[in-house]
């Protein structure tokens, strides 16, 4: 299934972006009819299908749609409902995702039908807002990544912005005020049909389960005035759009120059790198967030001198270090201890004794899948030592698994029986790269 954006859609997106870029005050009023275009809905389906995920509250899966009415029939019916404005958003299914600290994060799962509708709207409106977003915003944006944000931070550290406000927002997705968010959307889009759809998704009831497994409403609904469930296709764009107000104030008032403070934001995660103290920038942040109806989590917001200690951002620990040979300072970017601990625990889980009853090929395949995914993200900048640590753990865990499988109790005998070369060449273990993942000229200092 091709995920390449059809040229007809790309042409539309380019025109919308160009118009928005050329006329910052222009308000778009004729967009709704684009949402039920056959090419846009078809591409929206492909994107949602590629993202996968579980069924929503209606229990209807991708396979059920394909086996039942078929994708064409499904999209035809959705197009009709959108065109006739009889479309109604269904409740969102809430599941709780365990976090590393033992707490749980709520995740909202819309139905596939609603996900496709949200994706169709996103395809149409995203280019408009993309034209407005600031250069220091990186999260959930086309052609931008976490690595770009990390590089921006590294460059700011190089430039002497080493006093860092490591900010954390209190329950951001649950706190976004609907009225203010819709007002921000309406600064650019006055198409009533689009605004009505977004309002439906914001107001959709959220259904969870009680201790007995019975469904109950846990949020949302017409009376709800705050929050956008994490998990919806449209939610990251809306959440990004609301915090764009902070970015906009930072740029319009030239606070980077006036306060010596550079902000780097990835969705609701952001840091402010300061050159002339943190007091004034922190005061501005608190004031702006208060106006937005948001608050800093004071217990998780930290002030850090990056020359003395590191701070964590997007899974990396970042701090200024000195080169062993040159003695020169450079931004040291490496996987966090938490990220290393998590992948090591996962590899241990995938090679435990009770799995000796399943085919060895399946064990190695599962290990490789987790190992590759982790390495693909974290093999970046100054990652050598952490990558070696993870690779050594993977070798030791597979060797231990092989000893258990072949009932070899002696650890030294296992080392002789299953040497490193055999782990890779005979058993097919994936070998993560352990050289530094240099991605910029600054990183090699």
Automatic annotation (TrEMBL):
Coiled coil: none annotated. It comes from the Bacteria. Keywords: Nucleotidyltransferase, RNA-directed DNA polymerase, Transferase. Residues 78-318 form the Reverse transcriptase domain. GO terms for molecular function: RNA-directed DNA polymerase activity. InterPro entries: DNA/RNA_pol_sf (IPR043502), Group_II_RT_mat (IPR030931), GrpII_Intron_Splice-Mob/Def (IPR051083), Mat_intron_G2 (IPR013597), RT_dom (IPR000477). Pfam families: GIIM (PF08388), RVT_1 (PF00078). Belongs to the bacterial reverse transcriptase family. This is RNA-directed DNA polymerase.
């Amino acid at each position: 299934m091709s995920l390449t954006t059809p040229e007809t859609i790309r042409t539309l997106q380019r025109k919308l972006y160009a118009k928005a870029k050329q006329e910052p005050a222009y308000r778009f009023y004729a967009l709704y009819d684009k949402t039920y275009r056959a090419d846009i809905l078809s591409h929206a389906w492909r994107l949602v299908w590629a993202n996968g995920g579980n069924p929503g509250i209606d229990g209807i899966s991708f396979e059920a749609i394909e086996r039942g009415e078929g994708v064409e029939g499904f999209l035809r019916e959705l197009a009709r409902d959108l065109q006739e404005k009889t479309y109604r958003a269904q409740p969102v299914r809430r599941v709780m995702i365990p976090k590393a600290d033992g707490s749980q994060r709520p995740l909202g799962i819309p139905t596939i039908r609603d996900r496709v509708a949200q994706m169709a709207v996103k395809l149409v409106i995203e280019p408009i807002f993309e034209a407005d977003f600031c250069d220091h915003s990186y999260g959930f944006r086309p052609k931008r990544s976490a690595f770009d944000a990390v590089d921006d931070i590294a460059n700011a550290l190089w430039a002497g912005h080493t006093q860092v406000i490591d900010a954390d927002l209190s329950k951001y997705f649950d706190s976004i005020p609907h009225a203010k968010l819709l007002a921000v959307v309406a600064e650019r889009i006055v198409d009533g049909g689009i605004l009505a759809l977004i309002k439906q998704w914001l107001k959709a009831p959220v259904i969870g389960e009680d201790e007995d497994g019975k469904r109950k409403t846990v949020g949302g609904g017409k009376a709800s005035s705050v929050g956008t469930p994490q998990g919806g296709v449209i939610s990251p764009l809306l959440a990004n759009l609301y915090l764009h107000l902070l970015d906009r104030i930072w740029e319009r008032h030239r606070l980077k120059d006036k306060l010596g403070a550079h902000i780097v934001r990835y969705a609701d995660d952001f840091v402010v790198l300061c050159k002339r103290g943190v007091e004034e920038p922190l005061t501005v942040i608190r004031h702006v967030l208060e106006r937005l109806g948001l608050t800093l989590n004071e217990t998780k917001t930290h002030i850090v001198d990056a020359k003395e200690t590191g701070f964590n951002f997007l899974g990396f620990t970042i701090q200024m270090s000195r080169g062993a040979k040159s003695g020169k300072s450079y931004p040291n970017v490496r996987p966090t201890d938490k990220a290393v601990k998590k992948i090591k625990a996962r590899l241990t889980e995938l090679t435990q004794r009770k799995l000796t009853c399943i085919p060895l090929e399946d064990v190695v395949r599962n290990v490789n899948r987790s190992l590759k995914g982790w390495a693909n993200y974290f093999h970046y900048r100054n990652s050598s030592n952490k990558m070696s640590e993870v690779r050594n753990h993977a070798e030791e865990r597979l060797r231990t698994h092989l000893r258990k499988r072949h009932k070899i109790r002696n650890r030294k005998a296992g080392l002789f029986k299953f040497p490193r070369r055999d782990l890779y060449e005979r058993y097919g273990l994936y070998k993560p790269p352990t050289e530094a993942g240099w991605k910029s000229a600054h990183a090699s200092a």
